[in-house]
Design goal:
The complex is a heterodimer of chains A (308) and B (427). Chain A is mainly α. Among the domains of chain A are: 33 residues, no CATH class; 136 residues, no CATH class; 30 residues, no CATH class. Chain A contains 13 helices and no strands. Chain B is of the alpha/beta class and 427 residues long. In chain B, the strands form two sheets. Chain B has an eight-stranded mixed sheet, with helices on both faces. Chain B starts with a strand and ends in an 8-residue tail after the last helix. Classes of the chains: A mainly alpha (308), B alpha/beta (427). The interface between A and B is medium-sized, with 24 and 28 residues.
Amino acid sequence: MAEFQVRSDAVDVEQIMRQIRARIREKRGADYTEQEIRELANVKLEKFLDPRGIRSNLVQEFRRNRVITPAPQTVGIGDVDVFGSPRPMLRSIRKLLSPILRLFFSPTPMVHAINTMQKQQNEVNAEFHRRFRQREEMDPLYYEVIHNLVVELTRLSIENQNLKMRVESLSSRMDFDERRARALETVVAYKPAPRPERIERPQPSAAPAVQTSSGDGQAAAAPAQTNQDPQRAGLEPRDQGERGERRRRRRRRRRPGQNMGQQGPGSNGQSNVQGSVQGPGSGSESGTFDGGRSDDGRSASDDGDSDE
Amino acid sequence: MKIAVVVQRYGADINGGAELHARYIAERLARHATVEVFTTCAKDYITWKNELPAGEETVHGVTVRRFPVSWPRNPDDFGRRSNHIFGSAHSMADELKWLDSEGPASRKLIRHIGRVKHEFDFFVFFSARYYHAWHGARAAADKAILVPTAERDAAVGVSIFGPLFRGVRAIMYNSLEERALIQTVTNNREVPGVVVGVGSDIPERVQPWRSKRKFNLKRPYAFYIGRIDENKGCAELFDYFPRYAAMYPDGLDLVLAGSAVLPVPKHPRIKHLGFVSDEDKFDTLAGADFLIMPSPYESLSMVALEAWALGRPVLANGRCDVLRGQAIRSNAGLYYENFEEFAEAMYALEAAGPLNAVLGRNGREFFKRHYAWPVIERKYMEMFERLKKEPAKTSMAPLPGWFARRARNLPPAADAVNAAPKGPVLR
């Protein structure tokens, strides 16, 4: 990831902004404008999936507003209906005069035709009603399915957003760690030291000598332990033994008021290892250690120790 | 030398940008000349209602004469007229009515300027767009010096301001961008002008730890000072910051100081201090990683200058030409135009990062070089001396006749401003 290059006090804000924009382009992948991004963010799907826009009482709302269609009425017609009337007097007059009317035309075929059409219409209505009722009975199920789908989609959308945020958060943390590591690497001053010749350590046959000199058996125990699982640390057993020794030596050196040449009487027994392996003048190695690491990843003092 | 400073509102407790600017200038010029301030009795910049007593008083050693406002502003009427003037063809009479509607309309103030103009060497008018500056500068045209405090808004394109900008003796601009805009829109390059701006009373010693303890600011923060208003870009800031906070959990907090017109969102990393004293303001600013200026319209940001004076970088809204130009010229701030740039710039400006100290140092140098009080005072005094020696190069054009004023032949004011080139002035 690109870093902000500030090589001197003479910074150029425009250049920094160019770096920032280049970095954004790199992150974004495609160079969308802010307007385009907003348009993408405001597509209808997002609105639909907006958790605040979901009505949690969708099914209840539907049930409340549900209307059951009544069954259609069947209507017939006959002679009585042709000359009938709700008013008795009018009905009597019509009945009285019906023979005269029938003298001019016959209403029976007309009534028959109307009745036939009505019958067919009733059948159609009944079929329509049956199907319509079926549909109405299915509607709550559809609504329920849609409701569940919306809820699930909303949940997924929220989860997706959370995951995105977590990824961004992790990404930024990783970015920060990476920068910090780089910054620390640049801050630490190198002290180039000539790479010492690698002296082969005595093979396990030499270990007892150290063990004898230490007197407590710990020095021998460490290599023995590392030998059990040499690949766990990715190191050779010999290297692990060396590192253990070096670590112990460094700890002793760091004790206040003590160094390789000035050890108190009480520490005499423990310093036998270092005393035996440290040559004259090696005490100055603690002065050369500046916290840096040599090219092969080992500290300068470690290299000095390897001379023994 | 006798100088009159004319401004819409004035007082120790009035903290509007142009008003504070006028007070600072009046108090500083009072060290070199006799200064009187002519202002209105208004305190509220929305209605210009008469709230302060008319007459004479002394504020921080400067004589102040207040005149009553003849009629308060009706915001609805002003809004309607503004829409008409800015957005459609209109007449000069419409513009004059708009100016009357905008206010603060104090006829007594204008009459007083006409009456005493022979007693003063110069009249320094602040905020060109208001009634007092337009009528006042016409009443004393041969002694009028204008401090426009103009932003990039449509008011600059109103045609009645053309003769004003071309007819005054001199113009004290706040920024290169303001000068470029006014010169482009009104074609007043003949008028002597200088980019001055304003200094600020920076305390000699600040105590950031005091405000951190007082306001319980335990984490590093970016600071915003000013009215929390949509016009100041705070809505966008409140949109961007939570997203930034989600991206950078270990990033900065946002601390706000000022009265809130817009509700401040409830967020664990946003803290609103309310209205704070100057001491708290400077202490909190000194303790901040940097200052945020989200406003897209600024003629000059005094808080940005104060941040630079204290060695703090500024993160500005890149759509504001003035702030962007200042950030580039000073090399003391970054700017953003969208969320990604906002987040990256916030990250880049953290105090622990490599940029913060360098930009802060540049800001301090920039402030010292351009906005320290000796520099500001010298520019004003040099301009006064120059104008005393030089005869007036231009004169105020009279208003056209009755019929010409009523001809609907003026284009929308916004068109003139939109036609002017945008972007910071870099040289």
